[in-house]
Amino acid sequence: MASTTSDQRSDDRAASSRAEYLRASPPLIDRPAALDRLTRVHWSVPVLIYLPVVVLLTGTALESMPTWAALVGFAVGYALWTLTEYWLHRVVFHFAPDQGWGARLHFMIHGVHHEHPNDPQRLVMPPTASVPLAALFCLAFYVLLGPSWYALGAGFLGGYLTYDMTHFAVHHHQPSSRLGKRLRELHMRHHFQDSTRGYGVSAPYWDHVFGTAPGAKKRSDG
Question: What is the SS3 assignment for 2-64?
């Protein structure tokens, strides 16, 4: 009985240590410390930044074009975001050089999240990265479409906000809905089973389109 109790305590300590490691938040920038604080962000920050922008763009689109056109533009923008999410995650976040500055940069961008996936302050994109990227996309939409870019931009940024909130939720909440459970399952399989699959966090259907769904046979290069 004593041996069983001792083994149980060892298992409990190991589980506790593992949980602490997964939740750890190591510094990414040693000096100055103020820069490292910019790599951490509360989940509510994207909501405070992007929700008013999405509402403003949506209202402007509805005022400046027919409702059906605004809805189509919003849907296209959302679809465009989901494709961006998939390919950004697959090509940029998972481009992992073995050594040197490339390896260090990969760790700072995404590797730290796979090393410590339950760090609550590194589950949404910091504004220092997301705002310049969002501005570049919106500028491109404006150059290509002129004033009619409002609906497309609203759908795109709304999709991004949905992605950020979904990513936080699947790591830090136990979902009760069937959809929530499925999204959490797929993302946890990406983290703990096979990181070369399951790139779509809020839109996992693209993994089926591009042959990277968990459990699916990998497509050959030939």
Answer: HHHHHHHHHHHHHHHHHHHHHHCCCCCCCCCHHHHHCCCCCCHHHHHHHHHHHHHHHHHHHHH
